[in-house]
Amino acid sequence: MAVAEEIPAGLKAPFDRLRRARQAHALLAILLLLASLASLTVGATDVTLWQVAAKMARGEAPSHLERVVLFDVRLPRLALGIAVGAALAVSGAVMQGLFRNPLADPGLVGISAGAGLGAISAIVLGGLLPATLAGLAGTYLVPLAAVLSSWCVTLLLYRVSTRRGQTSVATMLLAGIALGALSGALSGLLIYRADDQQLRDLTFWSLGSLGGASWTKVAAAIPLISAALALSFCLGRGLNALALGEATAAHIGIPVQRLKACAILAAAGATGAAVAVSGGIGFVGIVVPHLLRLATGPDHRMLLPNAALLGATLLVLADMASRTVISPAELPIGIVTAIVGAPVFLWILLRRRGLVDL
Amino acid sequence: MGCGARAVVLGVFVAATSLVGAAATQQAAPAARTKPDVLAIGGSVTEIVYALGEGDRLIARDSTSTYPPEAAALPDVGYMRALSSEGVLSVGPELIISEDGAGPPEVLDVLQAASVDWITIPDDFTAEGIRKKISAVGAALDVSEKADALSAKVGGELAEVAERAAAHDGAPRRVLFILSLQGGRILASGTNTAANGIIGLAGAVNAIDAFEGYKPLTDEAVNESAPDVILMMDRGGDHGASDDALFAMPALVTTPAARTRAVIRMDGLYLLGFGPRTAQAAAELNRRLYGS
Predict the structure, then answer these.
(1) Which 74-93 residues of chain A touch chain B by CB within 8 A?
(2) Count H helices, E strands: chain A?
(3) What is the rounded CA–CA span in Å between residue B290 and residue B272?
(4) Contact predicate B102/B71, CB 8 Å
(5) pTM for the whole thing?
């Protein structure tokens, strides 16, 4: 990477930070690998990765139960956990870079609420679709609706806050709050219309879970999330420049409008897909980039991939907790991330205000 | 790593997960059956299994299965609508008998892939529905003769209740079933619910017939429905509203029920389960509505 030339010689600190960020990169990748292996080994049933691997190495076929638990239950769950964790953390980091506000996240500008509205519409109104269409959409109906409605909300947000090619971040923030409230209200209307069973489905959906993981869901979510992440990773330099202010960024040759459009597109795509397959999982998008900025500095070129790794690791670990704490039953993962994330978030807030010195 | 390299890594990851997924779809022969190996999901199904004398075949239950007390000693696989596929597999069931509405659907798919037999017992909030449930559970457990006997016994009790239910003098009493009083709003039961069914079996009428399912009601609608009696679930201790607080609610203060302070509280699963104890529950409700 051409980082070294951009930093004036004699400034030692940025180099240290960069080295630390690179070390963090490797460390986080190792952590994710370890968490993934652990996640394939820990669970309610007595099946471990080692046991199956040893069997296969001896040339024996794993038992039917081992195959189902490992390949139909734990592996799609792991894949979904990695994808959703990375998507939430990266879209949080992208939104925070875009708004130049470390407290921004897709939840703040109504994108999560918009995705939620789509998913809830699919759950409640899915039955009204002609049978052929509903059958065609099948498992893809909920994710599809969530992504479409998060695009719609984002597009609307963009149109409302852009005048003559200039996007006002303040207007976008306020419009986002309004659109989030509107999405919430429409969701409420649908919830009112929902029957008893749908209500209970919605309650559990809103608490978040990777419990419904399946290869169909993996196939529905991962291409979209991968595309959004790949787009995000290309925005690092632009978001760094944006931190200096839009005018400065434009002066040093950053296409600011295109950068903003890409950032919104990436964050909305990743959030929509993540919300659709996993429901409401809070605090990953806001806490992960924060922790990384504290540890390795604000350079988005490192922050974004590191956020993907740390977000994925945290969600894989949270999912392990959610399915083992009260096994054989399961705790919704949104509860786990909120219980762990909310105190960390509070600590960050207090620390920023100088109220605690830790 | 540049953008290209990352894209390649992502691509390899997607491809690897898809390949493993495809490899995982092969089938194997199910293991031989050993007792106990039945998982009961749904309070009424569990009750029926015990009433058939087959309780020792259960290895686990869901969180709605709270009766009889022996059931509580079994491992709990969680709420029936939020089951965990690995949690269910970990208790090692060969047969799952479940009430309607267990899920999520992805979990059912995985269990099907794991060659676990899954039998769903349809919900039906009528006397005939209970007998059908008993027969279905009996067939699933391969004890149809026992099921026929239980069904005949429960059928007799239900016929007795029906007779009593028809015997009261004057107009049937209007009953308002309140599911919850969260935030001072009344969540009432409309038609096509277990509450509606039991009110009918007890010889009364549901005061709310304008909608299906459970909905929050406005104060005016509650007044308009003019219930003679309020029916609620007994949640034990002081969790439910006290009678004073209940009848002081603006929604209820002018109703006939408030004038006579008529409120009946009964155990939720007993009252709404539509299982083998429903005839007793309906008889008790009838007695408490009309006096004996």
Answers:
(1) 74-76, 79
(2) 17, 2
(3) 20
(4) no
(5) 0.79
Q: For residues A310 and A169, what is the distance between their CA atoms, to the nearest angstrom? A: 28
The answer to whether residue B112 neighbours chain A at the CB level (below 8 Å) is: no
Q: What is the 3-state secondary structure (H, E, C) of B25-90?
A: CCCCCCCCCCCCCEEEECHHHHHHHHHCCCHHHEEEECCCCCCCHHHHCCCECCCCCCCCHHHHHH
Among A71, A139, A326, select the one facing B20 at the smallest CB separation. Answer: A71
User: Which positions in chain A touch B213 (Cβ < 8 Å)?
Assistant: 195-196
**A with B: how many residue pairs have Cβ under 8 Å apart?**
145
Between the alpha carbon of residue A58 and those of residues A50, A52, A208, the distances in Å are 12, 10, 40
Q: Say if the Cβ atoms of B104 and A332 lie within 8 Å.
A: no
Q: Are B143 and B54 in contact (CB under 8 A)?
A: yes
Instruction: Calculate how close chain B gets to A351, using CA atoms only, in Å.
Output: 33
Query: In sequence order, what are the residues at sequence separation of 6 or more whose Cβ sits closer than 8 angstroms to the Cβ of residue B182?
Result: none
Instruction: Say which of A218, A229, A326 has its CB closest to residue B10.
Output: A229
How many Å apart are CA A42 and CA A345, to the nearest integer?
28
Q: Do A214 and B212 touch (CB under 8 A)?
A: no
pLDDT tens string, chain A, 358 residues long: the values are 445 455 555 566 667 777 877 888 999 999 999 999 999 999 888 888 888 889 989 988 888 888 889 998 999 999 999 999 999 999 999 988 887 777 677 777 788 889 889 888 887 787 676 665 655 555 677 777 887 888 888 878 877 877 776 667 788 788 888 999 999 999 888 887 777 777 777 777 788 888 878 888 888 889 889 999 999 999 999 999 998 888 899 999 999 989 988 988 898 889 888 988 888 788 898 889 988 988 888 899 999 999 999 999 999 999 999 989 988 888 889 899 989 888 988 888 788 777 655 5
Report the residue from A197, A212, A215 with minimal CB separation from B21.
Answer: A215
User: Per the CB < 8 Å rule, is B30 touching A64?
Assistant: yes
B5 touches chain A (CB under 8 A): no
Strand locations in chain A, DSSP E? 162-163, 166-167
Query: Is this prediction's ipTM beyond 0.85?
Result: no
Q: Nearest residue of A to residue B90 by CA position?
A: A45
